[in-house]
Design brief:
With 347 residues, this protein is of the alpha/beta class. It is built from ten helices and 13 strands.
Length: 347
């Protein structure tokens, strides 16, 4: 019998010959725009309060009467990513849709997206991890390709939080924040093994579930909280607690990921962070002394779009030529669950 491996020993895995690249990106946006001025007419709030506390000026929301939904945004997002990648839908081996707003409990929204884009018999499933959904799905898709079992995977982040909002004064602390959107990427295997994820993390702390939750029955409320039926179907959030969690977690997550990869902040070309609150983003930027153009902010135009937030940023950066092959880019997210995670790429 061989001697047990010392706990401190590092097991070196053979370096795979497969690399993974982000071959294309796309987005899908709903038709309606909801400005702070619109919200002023619906609840007791002001443009000044919203901009000062969150940095949000406007957000996009679905026109439900016209049939707009998670599926109707996610489908063009994946189509756009395929076109950008110059990859035919029939080449997709798998479609992952990160969402907390599936159309129905069954079927998975990803199956319908796959059918809409013409992905044939590709596997398809939804991944539920709130605002971290896209980053978690990205990590999983990367590793499935790296492992050699799959070659091309579509990863979508799509959410329709406007369906869960209370747009009265009662819900103003939450309803001003969220918007609807979808973003997608197509990942594919390549023969340069240096391309792909350099470091990643996925964390959760279920004890924090009660800080962001969507009750639909009186049994969904934490002990001590009035299970008021008027809250059913409306996202409940302890804004101040989540804010504190985010301000602490965000920098730690960035540092943890840099440490895993053995990199300094200066060696990362772009930080693509979940857009939750402009103040949280600015705090993280200051902590690492990053120049303004290295941590992208578009929350002013879209609000917090949950799983769509990171791919929406990525697509805008790629379209503007600010994120390109050869760069190192870190994706970072946190949200309901509570969850937090990262993905640092050599593009
Ligand atoms: N307009 C005007 N006043 C508002 C308001 C609004 N839309 N929402 C809340 N207020 C009021 C509150 O009623 C409260 O009034 P009071 O002091 O008279 O009781 C006051 O503003 C302060 O409320 P508070 O909730 O403490 O504000 P805040 O500074 O924490 O800002 C958030 C609220 C939601 C903007 C902030 O907590 C936040 O961004 N949290 C993080 C949320 C997040 O990132 N969630 C997503 C995770 S993925």
């Amino acid at each position: 019998m061989s001697a047990p491996t010392p706990a401190t020993a590092r097991i070196e895995l053979p370096r795979g010959r497969v690399g993974v690249r982000i071959a294309g990106s796309g987005i899908g946006l709903p038709s309606r725009t909801l400005t702070n001025a619109d919200l002023e007419k619906m609840m007791d709030t002001s443009d000044e309060w919203i901009v000062q506390r969150t940095g949000i000026r406007t957000r996009r929301v679905v026109n439900r009467e016209a049939g707009e939904c998670t599926l109707s945004m996610a489908t063009p997002a994946l189509r756009g990513a395929l076109a950008d990648a110059k990859i035919d839908a029939t080449e997709l081996d798998l479609v992952l849709c990160a969402t907390m707003c599936p159309e129905m409990a069954c079927p998975p929204t990803a199956c319908r997206i796959a059918a809409e884009v013409g992905a044939g018999r590709a596997g398809a499933m939804d991944i539920s991890a709130a605002c971290c959904g896209f980053v978690f799905a990205l990590n999983m898709a990367h590793d499935l390709i790296k492992g050699g079992a799959y070659r091309t995977i579509g990863v979508i982040g799509a959410d329709t939080l406007s369906n869960w909002m209370d747009y009265s004064t009662e819900g103003r602390g939450t309803a001003i924040i969220f918007g609807d959107a979808a973003g997608a990427v197509v990942l594919t295997a390549c023969d340069d093994p240096s391309r792909g994820i350099l470091a990643q993390s996925m964390h959760a702390d279920g004890a924090g579930w009660k800080d962001i939750f969507t009750p639909t029955s009186r049994h969904h409320f934490p002990a001590g909280v009035d299970p008021d039926p008027r809250k059913f179907g409306h996202l409940q959030m302890n804004g101040a607690t989540v804010f504190k969690f985010a301000v602490g977690t965000f920098p730690n997550l960035i540092q943890e990921t840099l440490d895993k990869a053995g990199l300094t902040p200066e060696q990362v070309d772009m930080f693509v962070c979940h857009q939750s609150n402009a103040r949280i983003l600015h705090a993280a930027r200051e902590r690492f002394g990053l120049p303004e153009d290295k941590l992208y902010v578009n929350i002013d135009r879209y609000g917090n779009t949950v799983a769509a937030s990171v791919p929406l940023c990525l697509h805008e950066l790629r379209a503007a030529g600010r994120v390109r092959d050869g760069q190192k880019v870190m994706f970072v997210a946190f949200g309901g669950g509570l969850t937090w995670g990262s993905s640092l790429w050599q593009l």
